[in-house]
Amino acid sequence: MLKRSDLFFLLFSVLLFSPLIWVENPAQLLKATNHSYPLLASFIKFAVLATYGELLGARIVSGHYPLATFGILPKAVVWGVFGIFIKLCFVIYVNGVPMALALLGMDQAASALQGPVSVQMLIVAFAISLSMNLTFGVWLMTAHKITDLHIAAHQGKLVALVHPIQIGQILAAMNWQRLWSFVLKKTIPLFWIPCHTLTFMLPSEYRVLFAAFLGIILGLILAVGSRHKTPENSTSAV
């Protein structure tokens, strides 16, 4: 049932995305910002969009917006930092995987991403997505689960950003079966690899933005998958 809080969230959503409507040339602005401040732009995109997706997912799971304990600001900072790493990894994998493919005989792998849509572009984009998600993606999802539980342990307060993360304790208490059976085994092959294949077929200035928007969709997917789980299994988007 639609609640008053949903109306406020809808209004917030309109305000959040309204700059894209009022800016005369949003594509050009995005391109210029990405060129001048690539890491800062990545931080902001993920801090806003991925946190937005998690909050929306939390609404689906719990039936309300747990603003008091959700930890919007700590999560936004964490997602922003992850966004920087994601941007750096995009650069590494987009340049490194085509070089590896060239060693396997695909000499035009690097130029395939710059040309028109083709089977060769699809193969290269899939190879980049597969390589990144089977290496960095696993680390990212595990790291996010750790930070998510750390923030939850501090009731979503900003102090979570300055308190040391008790990694050993969190790893010992973490539900690895849940992390493996749904987050890693299902979302990586069924969501991340196909979606990031599409990501790497886009022009470079749109890739990180599209990846950040995927965070919204993933938050919803994980929320739906968590509806019949225990609270501990439902706290994180990864």
The Cα radius of gyration reads: 19 Å
Number of helices: 11
Helix content: over 70%
Strand % is: under 5%
Mean pLDDT: 84
Please describe the biggest sheet, giving its number of strands, its sense, and whether it closes into a barrel.
none
What are its keywords?
238 residues; mainly alpha; 11 helices; 76% helix; disordered C terminus
Description of the molecule:
This protein is an all-alpha fold and 238 residues long. It is 76% helix and 0% strand. It contains 11 helices and no strands. Helix 4 packs across helix 6 and helix 6 runs antiparallel to helix 8. The C terminus is likely disordered.
SSE arrangement:
Layout: H1 4-17, H2 19-22, H3 26-36, H4 38-62, H5 67-70, H6 72-103, H7 109-112, H8 119-153, H9 167-173, H10 176-199, H11 204-225
Brief write-up:
The chain is mainly alpha-helical and 238 residues long.
